[in-house]
Amino acid sequence: MDSERTTILVVDDEPFYLEMLTELLSDDYSLLVAKNGEQALRRARGRTRPNLILLDITMPVMGGFEVCRRLKNNTLTRQIPVIFLTARNDVQDEIRGLELGAVDYVSKPINGQLLKRRVATHLSLAERHFALERLVQERTRELQQTKDALVFSMGAMAEMRDRETGNHLLRTEHYVRILAESLAEISEYGSLLDRTTIDLIRRAAPLHDIGKIGVPDRILQKKGPLTEEEQAEMRNHVLYGERLLDDAAGYLGETPFIHAARDIAGNHHERWDGSGYPRGRKGEEIPLSARLMALADVYDALTSRRCYKEPITHEDAVRMILQESGTHFDPQVVNSFERKQEKFLDIMNKHRD
């Protein structure tokens, strides 16, 4: 670790120890000083966050144990190593300090050379820990990107068979995310749509039509209108998608991702008033993720060119969707769409076919 950039927070109510520790460490580290617990917490959360804290246990008003507890309960400071300093030689105190999350315990009077060695050791261990965390985060990010690419490719294979492009998947993925983020602003949906859930729905969205893999080419690629029998077979794509994802769960185990993908694939053609398919579910019987996907999919279909139709304008698509509030679409989802319609337009223009 580069000691020139390393900051240590020294916390002690006794001027003698503050002066001694400053003299002992100032040549090698940048120092912050606090004379009481409240001041220590402010320094630890400040702009210059310490890499390590030397914390006296016995202080008036707020002792070191309480300071440590608050540090470890705060996401900004919980990872900072804490070394307790104390004139008390009580094994129970030492155990309590370590249970609170301290990494070491140094008795007063302080042996300067021993303290310097312990400080250097714990700074080195902390740096290794952070480096390992960064490596794990990077590998996790790479793995997630690989998964997303595979999911997108699977969805694209289904879309390509009925002449739709990969941009349809890209656009609808963004539309679903925007709707979910907008809906999460409403208090009753905030707990249902946290950041993790929104990201899960976004990542599962490209599989909404994966079941089209099971629909015959003669139907998917037909240029003219479909017969009633062909329409019935086309509607089966939602059941084929559910079945594919059920099989995936059988091999891989049930995961939140597979659950979200199955909800979307099997329910995004249901309608709020119960007139959709395949099961005629209505209202909140329809999974929230599928209600989001339903609107995103329809908006994209309306504003995109297909071999059998020309696109309509954004303004006309908005008007049609607003008219379908409470019949085709969840009214709350429509309200979210209306609030964020300009973002839909931006994405449509950015990712045109």
TrEMBL record:
Residue ranges of domain HD-GYP in the record: 143-353
Alphabetical keyword list: Phosphoprotein
GO biological process: phosphorelay signal transduction system
PTM annotation (4-aspartylphosphate): residues: 56
InterPro entries per UniProt: CheY-like_superfamily (IPR011006), Cyclic_di-GMP/3'3'-cGAMP_PDE (IPR052020), HD/PDEase_dom (IPR003607), HD_GYP_dom (IPR037522), Sig_transdc_resp-reg_receiver (IPR001789)
Domain Response regulatory: 7-123
Acyltransferase as UniProt keyword: no
GO molecular function: phosphoric diester hydrolase activity
Leader sequence residues: none
The keyword Mitochondrion is annotated on this UniProt entry: no
PROSITE patterns: HD_GYP (PS51832), RESPONSE_REGULATORY (PS50110)
Alphabetized Gene3D superfamilies for the sequence: 3.40.50.2300, Hypothetical protein af1432
SMART domains, sorted: HDc, REC
PANTHER family xref list: CYCLIC DI-GMP PHOSPHODIESTERASE TM_0186-RELATED, CYCLIC DI-GMP PHOSPHODIESTERASE VC_1348-RELATED
Protein name: Response regulator
